[in-house]
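Q: Entry one of two.
A:
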Amino acid sequence: MPFRQEIIDVVLSELAKSSTNTVGTDRNKKVGKLWTTYSKSDIEDTLATLDNRQYEVRYYRSFEMDTKYGFGVRRR
């Protein structure tokens, strides 16, 4: 699966604006749009390139809707 620079650009840009050092598909429209634009494997492969000493990436499933998945990134 290809690395997508656009995913990194959006996530890091939105993290820089976040007062909580956290962005996620449920809280941020631009990050949420990534989930509908790119495949899950593209997102996972791209976010795997982030330095895990600086960023924590989590994937989750919404409890309200079993089919709704998402992700969050937190700056450590």
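Q: Entry two of two.
A:
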Amino acid sequence: MRKGWITVWGSAAAFLLGLAVGAVGDSKATKVVTEQVEVPGEIPGEQREALQQREAELDERSTELDAREAALQKEEQEVAANTIGEGVWTVGVDIEPGTYRATDVSSMCYWEIRQTGVTGFEGVINNGLPGGGNPSVTLSEGQDFQTNRCGEWTKQ
């Protein structure tokens, strides 16, 4: 029976010792710091007027930029619709009739205008090996236009 009481008192002493150690280990409590921030109620009259004027200027500038962007997008779409690269193009089907100018011609550039549907040398209307520069061609319906290594051609 004596062994039973020693176990109970030993357990109780170990429990109390654990509580004491735990309390001492937690002596560095976190300190919470709060600051007050002052928010002004009203902007002084002069500053408010200057801000309103600047806001109006920025709104006007934004409107101008939106209009400019819309105009540029329209131009870019027109240029893209009237620009061709390497390949064979049928005038009136693939591309519009008109005058086209090459912009990035290599020394190995070759272009050819031929009558649509006619094969062989008999169908060639005009051709060229410009070797550089910015050649231009005038294309009409009923023609095929072939271009190799001439860069992009843009309708003028």
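A: Comment on entry two: The mean pLDDT is 85. The CA atoms of residues 58 and 74 lie 24 Å apart.
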